[in-house]
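ARCHIVE CARD
CATEGORY: sequence design from structure
SOURCE FIELD: tokenized fold
FIELD CONTENT:
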């Protein structure tokens, strides 16, 4: 199914690259909650509450992993859209298995680098100064850099400009 960038539900690894103890796969868009339902054999947890779930391949029913599932109904999310986070084991096989299962679902596609942040900007959840602060935070190596980035992300520059 072909979807435009405005209607597509995207997913991507939001944590560090495997192998790692834990990986976080984020899903954002109109089909995010439906995708979460497809990947688990149980009901979705209450919004914003982590719950242990088995993640299964919807095509085969094979268990891919077991981890935490958190749902975030929009518009009160980082992107302004429905969002889901899958906190799973961070092996290459698990991340590839979950990503392949998501990629097979209608209306979902792998997000491009920076696309979650772009959606946050387009949906009025972040301004350009906040995005710059986020970029600085991700690159911060010292406590001073971290503090400055957090100040920028928190909107201090935008408030001063206003």
């Amino acid at each position: 199914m072909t979807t435009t960038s405005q209607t597509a539900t995207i997913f991507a690894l939001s944590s560090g690259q495997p192998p790692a103890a834990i990986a976080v796969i984020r899903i954002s868009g109109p089909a995010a909650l439906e995708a979460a339902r497809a990947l688990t054999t149980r009901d979705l947890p209450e919004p914003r509450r982590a719950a242990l779930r088995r993640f299964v391949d919807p095509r085969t029913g094979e268990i891919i992993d077991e981890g935490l599932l958190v749902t975030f109904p929009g518009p009160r999310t980082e992107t302004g859209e429905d969002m889901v986070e899958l906190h799973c084991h961070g092996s290459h096989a698990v991340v590839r298995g979950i990503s392949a299962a998501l990629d097979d679902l209608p209306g979902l596609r792998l997000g491009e680098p920076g696309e979650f942040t772009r959606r946050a900007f387009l949906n009025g959840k972040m301004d350009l100064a906040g995005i710059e602060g986020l970029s600085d935070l991700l690159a911060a190596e010292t406590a001073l850099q971290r503090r400055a980035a957090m100040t920028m992300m928190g909107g201090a520059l935008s408030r001063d400009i206003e």
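CARD ANNOTATION: Helices lie at 32-39, 92-103, 115-122, 128-139, 143-153, 156-161. The radius of gyration is 17 Å.
SHELF: design records, drawer C
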